[in-house]
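User: My advisor, Dr. K., asked me to get a structural model of this assembly before our group meeting. I'm new to this, so sorry if the format is off. These are the inputs:
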Amino acid sequence: MAGGYDVAISGSGPAERIELIVEVLAPGARALSTDEVVKYAGLIVLAIPMHRFQELRRDLFAGKTLVDAMNYWDEIDGVDGPFATAPAGTSMLVQEWFSSAKVVKSLNHLGYFKFEKSRRPRGAPDRIAMAAAGDDPAAVAAVLQLIDVLGFDAVNAGNLEAGLALQPGGPIFGAGHSAKELSNLLSLEVAAPLLSN
Amino acid sequence: MTTDQDIEFGLDSFVPLSVDESGRELSGDVVIRNTVDEAVLADAVGIDSFNIAEHYRKDMMDSAASIILATIAGRTKRIRLGTAVTVLSTQDPVRVYTEFATLDAVSNGRAQLIAGRGSLIESFPLFGFDLNDYEDLFEEKLDLLMRLLRDQPVTWSGKFRSPLTKQFLSPPLPVGHLPVWVGVGGSPQSVVRAARYGLPLMLAVIGGPPIRFLPLIDLYKRALVKYGKPLQRIGMHSHGLVARTDKEAAEIQWPHWAHVFEGAAAERGWARPTMDRFQAEVDEGSLYLGSVETVATKIAWVIRLLGLSRFDLAYATGRVPHEQKMATIELYGREVIPRVRELLSGPAEEQAPRDPSLASANGRSSTV
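Assistant: The format is fine. Below is the predicted structure of the whole assembly, which you can bring to the meeting.
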């Protein structure tokens, strides 16, 4: 919102359930139903437990830029099933499900507490970076712009499958890197793909 | 307005496996007995409460807190005996009631508890619960626990345990005994839930700048109003250690902190711990670590910042030797707490820790 974006938030229940929370923690944002968020939004961030995204209709986000901010955690999402292996990355499963959306993997690899305290204006010497990976260039560009507005240098990580490098277990996840360091790490990942265990 | 004398200062323990001063690991039973001695010392130096957590891990001996607390009760007269936290989701509220009402009786009215969901989840598979029910389990069990505490005989039914019909449980608790706090890690829904029950709030802060809790406290107060509940107390627990100098405290704590976070990094896919991150937690985050003056200044600052009336120090992280924990307890009780009270009763000039940007973040004002 500080960057000029109009923001609406929805949860799995009715808007009333999150109204007070949104009012206090994100004043200026609106609490809406998921259908209203989809109707209203140009860019949508999906930040729900991974094992629940298939509760949403496959055509829900048709034509929209959908930022996949989800991470797979074995205790929450289960040790069996497609999320646990996902050799091409969990975002590929998300893109497969929401086939008419333009999925961009981003905003998943920095902890929320680090987010808030690490925001810097463009040009600040200690500005850290976040990456975005996706198959649709225009969608990726929109997310890179969002990252910059949020206060981080924006690094294009490549196509959606390359987003594997942003998942938990690798050197990028959870750490705050400069744009240069992040680019280096990403090119190393291309050379020697991340093995999920 | 809370005066400095109304504020309670406690200690928290996970009863962690520790090493002796030569670095050799002690056995679990020794660690438990050492913890009892630590609590007895805490009582002797005037600390208000001793609170034990609940984990099911090889490196923590706190799986049966009520037994350790009862032992401490038998060796003390004054210190309050509590949990931080009781993982209510995977407990039976009926047993929680009977154990803690009995603890209250043997301790002559000194029992308390913090009900939490827990941040580690070993108890779920161990006791046969589904992590998908994480939220619903806590909600249902808190509901039953509060009925048992407030409203016997209880007629109740729910999804996760057998129903009760006009049930009395023994021993009866005198009115006002066994205060229950709700422990929250940072989730807004947990805060709203605590407000809905009209229960005091305990913030469990394991890292990051304390100022980020201001919006949650604002949310809690507004939710209390929304649910028609009177204003409740707010407390916080955080990790730390006190020594004669800042340098000595860091030297004692760092290797054991690093050891804990190396393990967590491996388990959780986090970045590995570094001295820089450790120092950042001390300077700007949630480690209350250093000399008496450093720790007291920071505690007084956070109490003022967040309007706290309870602060519990999780004294030492990881395998710090028993002797050094005893030294921390001695300093905390005899010097830190009186110094905090002194600072709080003085003028409210800003005594922020080293990072000035924490003094006001994003122009947010705190409602008092």
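One thing worth pointing out at the meeting: The domain at 4-358 of chain B is CATH 3.20.20.30 (TIM Barrel).

User: Perfect, thanks a lot.
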